[in-house]
Amino acid sequence: MTVETGSAVEFLVTPDAWKSLPKMPEAEYPGTEGFIGDVYENPGGSVMCSGYFELRHTDAPLYYEYEYDEMKVVLEGEFLLENKETGQKTVAKKHDAIFFPKGSKIYFTTPDYALAFYAGHRDSTLL
Q: Which spans of this chain does the record mark as coiled coil (predicted)?
């Protein structure tokens, strides 16, 4: 990767972007309380999108199939993660980093509440 030294590029800061996230559609995620929103959608032509994911406790797990690579960092609470295809189960706690490779089929639950920041290698239309 080359960096142009002749042009200046500004960085972005968006305060409080984790507040008031849109609820994930009930039709796609029945019985769950998930909230998600991109803060940056392919900014400046980047191949990345990033934002926040919040999950509240329900009896139903939130199932998500990744069509792209994504990383998450748990900011609050904990996520119980399960991939039923591989049998993998784990708990991701505050400050843990998570990588979901493209094709991952993940069931998310939380005993109470969890909030994560994510960055995905995807176009903004895939959320």
A: none
